Description:
This protein is of the alpha+beta class and 424 residues long. It has five helices and 24 strands. It has three domains: 51-211, Jelly Rolls, CATH 2.60.120; 215-297, Immunoglobulin-like, CATH 2.60.40.1120; 314-423, CATH 3.30.1330.60. The strands form six sheets. A six-stranded mixed β-sheet has the order 1-2-10-4-5-7, with no helix packed on it. Strands 3, 6, 8, 9 and 11 form a five-stranded mixed β-sheet that branches. Helix 4 (360-380) links the parallel strand 22 and strand 23 (388-391). The longest helix is centred in the N-terminal third of the chain and has 27 residues, at 2-28. It is elongated and about 95 Å long.
Amino acid sequence: xxxxxxxxxxxxxxxxxxxxxxxxxxxxxxxxxxxxxxxxxxxxxxxxxxxxxxxxxxxxxxxxxxxxxxxxxxxxxxxxxxxxxxxxxxxxxxxxxxxxxxxxxxxxxxxxxxxxxxxxxxxxxxxxxxxxxxxxxxxxxxxxxxxxxxxxxxxxxxxxxxxxxxxxxxxxxxxxxxxxxxxxxxxxxxxxxxxxxxxxxxxxxxxxxxxxxxxxxxxxxxxxxxxxxxxxxxxxxxxxxxxxxxxxxxxxxxxxxxxxxxxxxxxxxxxxxxxxxxxxxxxxxxxxxxxxxxxxxxxxxxxxxxxxxxxxxxxxxxxxxxxxxxxxxxxxxxxxxxxxxxxxxxxxxxxxxxxxxxxxxxxxxxxxxxxxxxxxxxxxxxxxxxxxxxxxxxxxxxxxxxxxxxxxxxxxxxxxxxxxxxxx
Length: 424
C-alpha cells in the first residue's frame, strides 16, 4: 500500500514540474507588435494641379486623405506681383478644387494635412466664367481669402475658413490658422487652391460646408435580414435645384443637412440588395433637434420576402371573386415597380387570412383567392404572369397560426407575402 502511494506522489510532483515549466515558457513569449493600418490614400484626378482641371468638391463630406501633391502641374498659374501680394510667390506642390453653393450661407473650409510637418497654404477665389483660369495666371483676379500662415503646432498644421475667423488675408509672418468665412449665395462658385511648400510631403483631407439654418438627418443603413448595420452607396439630390448634394461609396452612418424649403431625393444602393429610394424635407422634420432615417436593405436571394408598405384590403366583385380594394393600389404599385426593375426574379405569392380554426379547408381556399387577387393586379401593372405563382396558407401553417393565437390569447391578422422563389 505504501509503495503505491509513493508512486502516485512522484507522478504528481513530476506533473507539477512540467506544468510549471510550460507556464514559464508561455510567459517568456514576446507579444506580437500591433499593426496599425495606414488610411488609404485617395488618388487625385489627372491634371488637378492646374486650374482648368479643378476637382469638384462635395459639400458636407470629407474629401481625402489624398495622395501626396507633386509639383505645380503643366502651368504655374500663381505668382506674386506689385498689385497682387496676398498670394503664393509661386506654386510648389498644388491642387485645385471647385465648390458650388446650392443655397445661401457661410462657406467654411477645413484642411487637415496628414503630416503636421507639411506647410500648406490656401487661396480662395470667386469663380466667374470660363476665362477665370486665364485671368488668374495673368494676375487679373485676386483671391478673396488667403491663408499663408506658418504651421500652427496647436492646430496640428490645419488651415481653413471658420465661423470664428476674423481676417480675410493671413500673412506668412502669422501663425493664425483660420481666416473668416465667406458669405456665399445660392449659385456662387469658388475655386480653392492648396499648395504644400514641402517637397516629398504627404497629402491632406479637405471638407467644405455652407453653414446655414438646417435640421440634421442621420442616415443609417441596415441589413433587414441580419438586422445589423452595413454600408452602401448613398446618393442624394436636391429636388429643387437638381444639384447633387452627396455621392458616397460604401458609406455607413451619414449626416445630411436639410435646408428650409428644399426637398431631397435619397437613393441607397448596395450590390445584391434591393435599391432604396425616398424623399424628405426640412419642413417634414420641423421641431426635431435631430432625426434618424433607418434604411433597411433586403438582400436579393431565394426566400426573401418583399416588404409591403401597408396593409392590403380585399373585397368581392359581382362574380364573387376576391379583388384588391382601391385603397391598396399604391402599396402594390410599389411592388410592381420592384418586380419590373428586377426582371430576373420569380416570386411566389402566399395568401394569409384570419382564422378561428373551425374550417381550415375553407380558410386555405380563401387565402389562395387573396394571393390570386394580388397576382391579377400585378399583371395589370406589367408584371409577367409566368413570373408569379400563387398558393394559400397550408393546413400546417393555419394550425401554427391557431396555436400562436391560443398562446397569445388574441387573434392574429397576418399579411399576404410575396417571396422570392428563384433568381435566374
